[in-house]
């Protein structure tokens, strides 16, 4: 318990000091972002998820969120797949990307623009990628990033149940996986899938979502005022429906600590798509 609280205090510290002035973008930056991406065709299975209602970690006790039917990649995007993306879309190479779209550690574990680091597994999840880069990859693949609600809806499942959150071991098992060091270097799909057939929701990397900080980042979010500055700065954490759900709190706090151009050693992503299931 003490170890868990220590982790939460560290994350909470990041969580509440993370509000910064929005970065300024030039007309050249907007031109960069609006350039059309060259299409890619990653060989990854997408899992169809039948939507439904779920209670998010934050909000009122009786608040339920409706999640529509969607598809999600069965695993995170790999180093090899992102390498193919940057080769076909040179503006996202490490030496070409604009700093407003990715900070100075973007792809820092690569040897150069088109070469992975010597100790990198091509089948491990890509990391040190910004939200903008992840979004561009998804668009290039004809997909998008999952929403927080879609991601958390899938994350409720364990191996045998679509909603395992009330099981005593659910949160503790996830936290044990979060505590493992350097797990992001391992290849995808080496663990068991969950109820839906989705792999690696907790055991490899944290993952970007389209609305990672509860205010959807759009093309002009860097020059427009946010609709709810307090929510963007993570004050909504105080409305948690279950403060004892440490695993959910850790994810929520981590997301709120991010800016869209941040790149982190254990932060990757997977893609999603809208879906109509008859």
UniProtKB/TrEMBL annotation:
<feature type="domain" description="Sulfatase-modifying factor enzyme-like">
    <location>
        <begin position="65"/>
        <end position="273"/>
    </location>
</feature>
<dbReference type="GO" id="GO:0120147">
    <property type="term" value="F:formylglycine-generating oxidase activity"/>
</dbReference>
<dbReference type="InterPro" id="IPR005532">
    <property type="entry name" value="SUMF_dom"/>
</dbReference>
<protein>
    <recommendedName>
        <fullName>Sulfatase-modifying factor enzyme-like domain-containing protein</fullName>
    </recommendedName>
</protein>
<dbReference type="InterPro" id="IPR051043">
    <property type="entry name" value="Sulfatase_Mod_Factor_Kinase"/>
</dbReference>
<dbReference type="InterPro" id="IPR042095">
    <property type="entry name" value="SUMF_sf"/>
</dbReference>
<dbReference type="InterPro" id="IPR016187">
    <property type="entry name" value="CTDL_fold"/>
</dbReference>
<dbReference type="Pfam" id="PF03781">
    <property type="entry name" value="FGE-sulfatase"/>
</dbReference>
């Amino acid at each position: 318990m003490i170890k868990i609280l220590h982790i939460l205090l560290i994350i909470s510290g990041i969580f509440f000091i993370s509000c910064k002035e929005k970065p300024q973008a030039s007309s050249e930056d907007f031109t960069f972002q609006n350039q059309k991406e060259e299409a890619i065709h990653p060989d990854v299975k997408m899992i169809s998820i039948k939507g439904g209602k779920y209670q998010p970690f934050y909000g009122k006790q009786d608040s339920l969120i409706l999640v529509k039917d969607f598809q999600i990649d069965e695993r995170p995007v790999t180093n090899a797949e992102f390498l193919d993306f940057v080769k076909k879309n040179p503006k996202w190479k490490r030496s070409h990307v604009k700093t407003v779209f990715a900070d100075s550690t973007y792809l820092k574990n690569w040897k150069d623009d088109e070469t992975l680091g010597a100790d990198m597994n091509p089948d491990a999840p890509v990391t040190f990628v910004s939200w903008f880069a992840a979004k561009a990859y998804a668009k290039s693949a004809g997909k998008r990033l999952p929403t927080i609600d879609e991601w958390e809806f899938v994350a409720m499942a364990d191996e045998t149940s679509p909603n395992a959150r009330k099981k005593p071991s659910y949160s503790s098992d996830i936290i044990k996986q979060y505590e493992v060091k350097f797990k992001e270097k391992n290849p995808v799909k080496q663990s068991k899938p969950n109820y839906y057939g989705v792999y690696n929701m907790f055991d490899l990397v944290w993952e970007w979502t389209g609305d990672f900080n509860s205010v959807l980042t759009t093309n002009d979010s860097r020059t427009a005022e946010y609709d709810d500055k307090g929510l963007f700065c993570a004050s909504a954490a105080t409305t948690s429906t279950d403060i004892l759900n440490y695993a959910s709190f850790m994810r929520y706090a981590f997301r709120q600590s991010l800016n869209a151009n941040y790149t982190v050693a254990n932060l990757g992503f997977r893609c999603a798509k809208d879906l109509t299931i008859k």
